[in-house]
Write a structure and sequence with these properties.
single chain; mainly beta; Rieske Iron-sulfur Protein; four-stranded antiparallel beta sheet; binds FE2/S2 (inorganic) cluster
Length: 103
């Protein structure tokens, strides 16, 4: 079982934002889509693009390298050339703190 770790303040991740955090050596992307927070790996499964340098489009994370997209909620690849999903992590808010759980 994983423990939740506080990694950011809620105010640091406003709606529309994508940010990257190092959590125990894992690059974790936090996205705020219309007030809902999602945590995923920050590495594209197509060719290792840094997803946090991309954009948030209709609830999907768009890779800056070739335009592949992934659902921020499920990690599923939703647009080519991305074919394989990215990892997602449990995320929650306690007060002003954003916490994620990394296995
Ligand atoms: S590296 Fe992300 S779409 Fe190619």
């Amino acid at each position: 079982m994983s423990d939740f770790i506080a990694i950011a303040k809620l105010a640091d991740i406003p709606p529309g934002a994508i940010k990257s955090f190092d959590v125990n050596g894992e690059s974790v992307l936090i996205a705020n889509w219309q007030g809902a927070l999602f945590a995923t790996q920050d590495l594209c499964t197509h060719d290792n693009g840094t997803l946090s340098d991309g954009a948030l489009v209709d609830g999907a994370i768009e890779c800056p390298r070739h335009g592949g997209r992934f659902s921020a909620q499920t990690g599923a690849a939703t647009q080519m050339p991305a074919m394989f999903p990215i990892k997602t992590f449990p995320i929650k808010v306690e007060g002003e703190n954003v916490l994620v759980a990394i296995e």
